[in-house]
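Minutes, project check-in

Agenda point 3 was the complex the collaborators sent over. CS summarized: two entities, 1031 residues total, and the question is how they sit relative to each other. Sequences were read into the notes so everyone works from the same version.
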Amino acid sequence: MAAVSLDAFLAEIEGLRAEASAALDAAADEAAVEGARVEFLGARSGRLKSIQKMLGGLAPADKPAAGKHFNDAKGAITALLTAAQARLAGGTTTAVEAIDVTLPGEPFRFGHLHPITQTIRRVQEIMARLGFESVTGPEVEDQWHNFEALAIGTEHPARDPLDNFYLAVARGADPLLLRSQTSTVQIRVMEQRKPPLRIVSLGRVYRPDTADATHYPMFHQVEGLLVEPGTTMAHLKSVLRFFASSFLGGDVKVRFRPSFFPFTEPSVEVDMEWGGRWIEMGGAGMVDPAVLEAVGYDPDAVTGFAFGLGVERIAARRYGVADIRDFYRNDVRFLEQF
Amino acid sequence: MILSRTWLADYVHLDAPTEEIVERLLMAGLNHESTTAHGADEAIEIEVTSNRPDWLGHIGVARELAVLFGRPLHVPDPRPAGTGPAAAESIAIEIRSPEICPFYCGRVIRGVRIGPSPPWLVERLATVGVATVNNVVDITNYVMLECGQPLHAFDLEKLRGGQIVVRRAVAGEAFTAINHKTYTLTDQMCVIADAERPVALAGVMGGADSEISDATTDILLESAQFAPLAVRAAARGLVLASGSSYRFERGPDPAAVDWASRRAVALIVELAGGSLAAGVVEAGALACSPATMQLRDSRAAEVLGVEVPGPRQREILMSLGFVQESSGAGASRWRAPSWRRDAWREIDLVEEIARIEGYDRVPEDQPIAARPVELSSRERAVRAVSEVLVAAGFCEAMTRSVVAEPLEKTQSPWSEAPPLVCQPALIRGADRLRRTLLPSLLEARAGTLAVGAPHGELFEIAHAYVPRTAAPPADLLAESPVEEPLLVSLVTAGEYLRAKGLAEAVLARLGIGAGRLPPGGDSCVEYRPFVSDLFVAGRAAEIVLHRRELQPARVGVVGEIAAVLLDAHSLIGPVAAFELRLDRLDFAIAEERRLVRPSDFPAVERDINLVVDEGVPWSGIAAAIHAAAGPLVEQCTLVQVWQDAERLGAGKKSVVVSLRLRSDSGTLSGDEAARVIDAVVAECGRRVGAVLR
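CS then shared the predicted structure for the full assembly.
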């Protein structure tokens, strides 16, 4: 007759297992976990050790089953202990193999927008806050939109064949050309719509400059136009100051210097204070009355302003690009930096 | 334009340091380039805008400084007296082309001694960067730099026939300039001729065989007006720009024509001796008609947004040389000075007031009213597409719109007409307006891989340019003979299906699915085999858009780049590409999105293995599946295609398709799913002869 029945042994094991589980789950700090470890798994006087001693009192036929249950319980309690330790150490509750956390991550390559595009979008977003709508127009233009409507008469040097990319195709008698400015789009929009009007025209323009670090025969312009009754140069300056402060950050000062453009009068160069220096950002002015008349507006009823920015120039400055030809080399090592 | 600091002091006394002078000029519209010391003098380089030829002489700049600093301006008024035989006895002047030379006057000086200029003259010319030649030539240059009116001195004895004729050049006429180069002229150019041949290219440069030499004793001094276009045609056409042509292209002060002549004569007589012949020989009539214009009292404030008191406005205009002709209720009338032909309207007076008053007075805190604004669907499409491609790992390239002939040899998916050509070339022989972006992107890919970039996965969004052949649609470009499709193109390492997958992603982002017109949708695309020298034969498709009530239209091409193009760029294949017409696809992004609520019921997955003839396209099988199963098909995935003549029979292929079926009104039972699959198999059998394996 065995001293201990199998049922009693199993009940003892299950009871211990439940108690250990409760104690370890409840353990709120390392000391409590250690206390539980000593109580249940202690090598000399742990309660599991005591139960192990009961094995000797079992009938020999029951011993294999009892041993298996004992080992299962010991494994389970050990796992609970490890989990409790991991929980307190902030780790996961399942023990996994440690890895070298300094190994490189799985590569994930994302792409990049061209820095010119990023610059244009930034300008568009700032101007949108002021109610300016982005518009585009054809790059192959006629002489009316590229010159005449912009008050650039036939005698103006800007129309010289050497200063433009004329095409061998004409509309009417005048050969078409690649537009030399995005003001053409302003004319097209004004021809279609009536004031009030706020637009930003943008895109590629073309001038026969020899390519060097600061010139390229193809470049991008962003031009703003506002035509509303009562518009003054004070509105122009205020809008540009808002733009400069948003684009460059901080409270940026704007300075106007007199200049000359055929399609604005008065015309000014716009300087913005950047890094303690006055930086030329572009040209601006009040829309010339001749331009307003060309599109059928009454210059006594509405006034407007326009301004233009060279995108390459401001992108080059913003990103520290010393040679604007780099924008068109399409070297992925360049593009991936933006 | 280079100014001498001491020279300016001849006309206006300034004690301000040069830095301050330069700053004041800058804020008045004269851009400062540099200041360099030149002995005791300073050379101040300024940039003069094309509307202000009066600033192309020291007096003009001094006049501006006198206004800015409130100092008097001193301009000499030489009146050299003539003696001896009248000038008209030595020379006759005739203008045959008054449209390019309205006025010409000549003075004759006899008995000069040609020699070096005195040190003060040499130094001043050196400061402003003009080489000295001899006293007479130096004086003509000096007076031009003083007042902006170019002059020319002829050796009177070398002029044949005692005659000056101002006329258009005869096309093909030869002329040897004082630089001893010979030029072939056109009839757009104006020449000064004697009785026999051209002796000067009007307004540009004198001739070699009538120039002032050491042996010269008698001089004809020319001062004239020439039309800007004729001078520009000569200077540009012959690449022969000079200080003279630069000024004539902009239009000197008409009042300076006679002044400069008198001034130069006085200096020649003083420095080279000789005596002025009596009289002036003139031809034509001086073109000088100063504009008059009205200025409303309120206009400056209406334009500038800042009040400038009336008396101050008058003070500014009068100091600049404008003359008040009258003043009435609410407005005054002004006449421009002869040297200000840029000022002829009210707005020009407003600008002068602003310029002198200073733009720093214009406030910068004037709010504008809020206004709603929206991105156009074109712009939204561009952004959506670039978002997808950036996420997929592509870098945005920007390649040239105008390309060299080798890049335009291949076919364009968008035009069979030859490319447009521009003159001059954009850069190094690139004179063709591209009709597709793909060759440029291949070039860019090759370029970046050649310098060792980690990859050459590029896309670009840009216009192409194609001559219109059909009637244009009614839009902004209605009358233009050139169409500018907006394209998104991409090149990638991989085969056809790689590029197609990317194209499908882009189209899906825009809201366009493949295959069929869905019940709720308005558009879909179809891929049809496409043949072009851009792509490998049999590995390219055109993407055709179907829209309700519209003709199907090609909106894209996708394929594997042809080996000959890869070789041309030394690219290793396979390289695949697509090009899509955003201008024909952007409508989709504008369409309203309405939620289709995902079904709460479980899905049933079923695989079917169909055996079909090997020529049956996937699109045919997919169409049959969708037709049979309708909206219950949530997903239809091609799992595998294989061929095995022994197991399937020759000319057959097995197509394994995985279908995920789901209803939005209840859980599909096994029987219902089986009925759907039976219907699918039957429909595939009917349409493409499929049998279940």
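Noted in discussion: Chain A has a mean pLDDT of 90.
Follow-up: revisit at the next meeting once the mutant set is ready.
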